[in-house]
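Sequence dictates fold. Below is an illustrative record:

_____
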Amino acid sequence: MNRLFKYASLLAAAVVLSACGSDTGEGNEGVSDKAFYMTTDKDVIQSDGTDAATVRVFLNEEDVTDKAVIYNEKDEVVNLDGGLFTATKDGEYKFWAEYGTYSSFDKNQDDKGLLTIRSISVPVPEVVADPQVSNTSFVHRAFLTQYTGTGCGYCPYMIKIVKELFADGTIPGKAVLAAVHSFAKGDPAYISAPKVNNYPFMHFNLALGFDATSSGSAPLYALINECVAEDAAAGISVNPILYEDGTLVLRVSVKAAVEGTYRVGAWLLEDDIYGLQADNTGLKDKSYDTHENCVRAIDSRYDGEWNGKRLGTIRAGKTAEKTFVMDVAKAWKVENLHVAVIVSEKVDDNYVVCNAVDVPINAPTPFEYK
């Protein structure tokens, strides 16, 4: 049965279902999701004027870089000699390509189709050493995305469910939670995206949606346990280093247990944020005013979806790497920060989170084996 929907029976009427919408190594090289697209061998380069990312443009797997016109995000033509891009200043650089009637950038869908390269002056951490190179039996965790906000009067229903879930001593080792406070501005943990149409809401592995709070925590509890009982399709190692200038650099490695097409994404979380929680539920629990696992930054978007940046196809037992860069605001409390990293596997035409880890800042974390 398709893994995207195999757990749906557990949620019964309490669930709304929705599909989220070679070893390639660093960058966006890999299997194409569409006929006309751009790739780079590096998402992150040093801003020294010599470290270069190689940008390529493909049409139906044919390299048409020399024939395509490449633009920056200001729609200015960019001349990349030999497809090489270098930078002398720290920053984020975005590109799109045009070839005949084809365009890699859909201007009606935010940044869909833009290729992003980040330049930094701080070092990129090393990949964490694999303690068991021949092992592919990974600890398996689900990924829960809670859509909430301090101004959402009915969100205490979902907060209650989350607290019940994680009060069970077994669930913290089986699931990673990211609380997206995108309901309204004025929230001390507000982030503008991603959003949903109705709050509160929960995504399970960015594939199944749960919005019926009257069912309590039992359906999600059952869903988590059945999910993690399966072998994980891939494992994750993370080396997250925060530098003095506030630049957080993560060196992530994904190791496949089964050959597949994968994506990987990073979500920066902060705990213990105080914000008076609106409450139209009558629950009136003051503990709900302290918010945990609040999403501060996300580097997990590709082609309008939040299930990770493209890695391409990884053979069983092999790895692919990705580097993420996030800017940590001075107002955020470093001692309360941690990072969730997700890996998604392509199932039919959808990407479904197949594993997740939650690691402290400045704590190199190897693959976790059973």
